[in-house]
């Protein structure tokens, strides 16, 4: 299903989008609920008949039959409730899963700047937390709210039919009861909100610490973590005690209220019985119906709350949908296959336009050549790579790929033609195959094995216990840094891009792995254009051209051999001093 969510989202839109496709199940849900209401209303009538007939000395057979019917209908009602719960959970999960998928798709389309400015936890809360509040909206709120109203109306009508005075008294009690229940709940709400805030703080803290376990231990920060942990727990305790007490007061007030309702029903019934206006069976019937009111009244209260929460959830989802990607597909031609040329004319860019990070870059890299980019930390090398992938849009000047202005390219096409290998290799807790193909099914196992062989990874592949089906640990656990880099190269190789951008690993690898990596990089760069952010001499020797950036400006740019033999060039000085020492 394509994304149909729009920022002007309403309850009606949500129902149309996510419940309409499930209208058959939703209708069945309504039917089951109606059946259950009818059974709940009919059953006390049998009991009344039973009591009155028994008191009048009726035969045992009709009494037995009435008893069996009562039990049968009660069991039938329970079965309908279980079936209804099963269907409504299915409806809710199908609907909310679709909504989650649509929101994830929306977020994945948003600019990198959006993701950089938000924490992972915030997005998880947006996509899962807010959607969870809608689950009950889909599963119960609408249908059950109507169902409960119907049940209450049914009970009150039957009470009116029994005796008008009873009808009026219990109707007034029901109205007052609902009002009181809602009021009492609002008193407890702030305590629950506080408790949930503390929950979020605790889990946020826990998540952060778990993610950084290795660093924390290595730096001896365990004591600090435990102290913070204890502080948070200590803050959590009184808040939770207060929230529980507030919850208890809600619960006890509900009990008190329904106790009062029962007393009222019994009082009126006894009075009317004394007046000979009611039979004992009818007294029981009234008592039963009054009791029956408690569940729907209580549920209406929770459902109104769920509707409120769903309203807040919709509001936050709307805010998320209002954020739109600013980097969109261009309408230029598709990029050609094979090596791509790269040109920059007066290219200027800043993460905020007032503070440029790259200034007036002019570069001309013909197809098939390799550019080695050097520069100190923070000079703008990664920014340059991000611009080439169009993760950010250039602000001034021109950036051309195979002669096509980058703004005119289509994002999917662009990212098919550019491969990027960074120092942080992102590996997923999934099979080797899925990690290498990025879950793309059209890449055959033969192709993968061939590429692994080309990159010198045959031995590694044969050592895998289940071949390509071997599951990798999360974040590449169990792989050395060199192996992870080689896998990243394999991944890019399989996509066969025309331009490779490499942010080279500066960590020192063992000589055997380094040699393997060097060979793999050579194979990868052959007949492709390469932009290599270099940290090692070996890479520099591979480059045709050298670009040295300083504070976002070009300090030096030219053919490597020419710069290397010019003793006045910065590159020459760098080679003399040693690359690692200067750039580290
Ligand atoms: N997302 C961002 N938002 C704002 N400023 C950023 C962002 N990313 C980088 N910068 C800033 O842009 C400048 C260039 O950063 P960049 O990451 O491109 O440098 P680099 O040369 O790749 O550094 P390194 O070698 O350490 O990776 C730095 O001043 C940095 O603080």
Automatic annotation (TrEMBL):
GO cellular component term, pick one: plasma membrane
UniProt keyword list: ATP-binding, Cell membrane, Helicase, Hydrolase, Membrane, Nucleotide-binding, Transmembrane, Transmembrane helix, Transport
Membrane topology term: Multi-pass membrane protein
SUPFAM superfamilies xrefs: ABC transporter transmembrane region (SSF90123), P-loop containing nucleoside triphosphate hydrolases (SSF52540)
Statement: the UniProt record of this protein carries the keyword Lipid biosynthesis: no
Species, as recorded: Dictyobacter alpinus
Subcellular location: Cell membrane
InterPro entries cross-referenced by the UniProt entry: AAA+_ATPase, ABC1_TM_dom, ABC1_TM_sf, ABC_transporter-like_ATP-bd, P-loop_NTPase, Type_1_exporter
PANTHER family noted in UniProt: ATP-BINDING CASSETTE SUB-FAMILY B MEMBER 10, MITOCHONDRIAL (PTHR43394:SF1), ATP-DEPENDENT PERMEASE MDL1, MITOCHONDRIAL (PTHR43394)
Residues annotated as signal peptide: none
CDD domains referenced in this protein's UniProt entry, alphabetically: ABC_6TM_exporters
Protein's UniProt name: Helicase
Top-rank lineage group of the source organism: Bacteria
Main location: membrane
Lineage: Bacteria, Bacillati, Chloroflexota, Ktedonobacteria, Ktedonobacterales
Annotated ABC transporter domain residues: 342-576
Pfam families: ABC_membrane, ABC_tran
GO molecular function: ABC-type oligopeptide transporter activity; ATP binding; ATP hydrolysis activity; helicase activity
Domain ABC transmembrane type-1: 28-309
Membrane-spanning parts: 23-42, 63-83, 137-160, 172-193, 255-274
